[in-house]
Amino acid sequence: MPRIQRYKKNTTGLQYKCNNCQKADEREQGEIKELRQKTRQSLYVHKARGFDSNTGDTTRYLMPPWGPMQDFALGRLGLTWFNWCAESICIGSRQTTSMVLYKVWKTLEADELFHTPQLTPVSDEQKRRAALQLIRYHQYKFYTEGTANNNYKRKTRTILTLNEAIAGVNMNLSVKFALGVSLFSNTILSLGTERHHHFSRAAWNGELLSAVALTEVGHGSNTKQLRTTATYDPSSQQFVINTPDFQAAKCWIGNLGKTCTYALVFAQLITVDGSHGLHAFVVPIRDPTTFLPYPGLILGDIGDKAGLNGIDNGFIMFQNYRIPRENLLNRTSDVTAEGDYETSFSNPEQQLGAALENLSAGRVGIMQESVATLASAITIAIRYSAVRRQFGPDPDGEELPIIEYEMQQWRLFPYVAAACALRIFIESFIDQYLECVEMSHSGAKLAHLDVQDMVKQDPAKATAHPWPNPNKACW
């Protein structure tokens, strides 16, 4: 049991049991004074990483010199051994990512549309707010022309960072942005050719909103068994999309219920010589003026869910719905005007892998947002526990922060450790994933390439670490 009395700022009137205890307390008071001096140096001289959108400076104080945390010394929160500065750096992002995050947050913080309502709105109002927020988000143009012209790795890293930033503001907006803009655009650029690039530009300019229609009522993870068909008609040079039965209806598709005007539909491509497996098609869904569905479509909203009710998840069924031949994403496979199927793959499994490769970015984004959500939640809990006081050794004296109690530490600290470990893992994993996809786009063979091979190609990666030393960064 720690001697609580020793941590009190004003020790006047305290009775010590022996001179040794008093000397130990005096040493500890000196240590606390030294720590506070280092705190001021860290906060006001050695600025921590961040971004100041008012001055354009790429540095920002890690903690402002006001508020309930101002009296707490770095490394102990005044009364504890918890180092909030090291925690903030470890579960935060790397420097370049932090600059983007702070720029987005600072901008949206000043916009009332992005403020959290005091009461949880009904689901229709949540959908309306998310749609309006996405329009306003486009107007801020965080995604610049320079970013769009970057290579796949840098561009996708920026997209993931932007998505993480808006996830901290409104998770509904984050999902709407990911499905309706970034994932759609990335898939267009990866699986399509020049004739499709105008769809990507339109998505980033806010001229269209998309949905990614993969999952069906009967199948989701087992993509080989998806049953929506796209049959080529040589006489009209069109694909005819059909839903054989309700089990093949596209279901649970984000943005499909009310707001999207286009959908990226995955269907079995069929020509006169048979089925050629899963392919992606850009399919117009609604009139962009009236938002009414086109003839040949049956679609709707699936209703309220347990969460994310700002996303209009929906279902769709196709009845002899025709789209132009050019709407097939044809970087790896194509159908000629006469109906001949052409592909760069000899194995159908490779075609399936190419069709689904970019959707993995969505899974990576979910991992990243989950880690960011955990980090945000545990940071709030830790800081609140440091300023929330309850009970103390002296009924008439100062109460203790609840973080001093072992039960509170037992409940919270494992999540701090998890947030740190998962943050380090996801940053490393994203880099490796983007490198693999970029190599795939360049035509490199990945069949026998593993992580060790990737490290061998760049020995610096074997020792490089994306994280600064928290102690050096703080002190």
UniProtKB/TrEMBL annotation:
UniProt domain Acyl-CoA oxidase C-alpha1: residue ranges: 359-445
Cofactor section: FAD
InterPro entries hit by this protein: ACOX_C_alpha1, Acyl-CoA_Oxase/DH_mid-dom, Acyl-CoA_Oxase/DH_mid-dom_sf, Acyl-CoA_oxidase, AcylCo_DH-like_C, AcylCoA_DH/oxidase_NM_dom_sf
GO cellular component: peroxisome
Keyword list, A-Z: FAD, Flavoprotein
Coiled coil: none
Domain of life, source organism: Eukaryota
GO biological process, one term: lipid homeostasis
Protein's UniProt keywords contain Flavoprotein: yes
Ranges for domain Acyl-CoA oxidase/dehydrogenase middle: 211-320
GO molecular function annotation: FAD binding; fatty acid binding; pristanoyl-CoA oxidase activity
Name of the protein in question: Uncharacterized protein
Organism: Timema cristinae
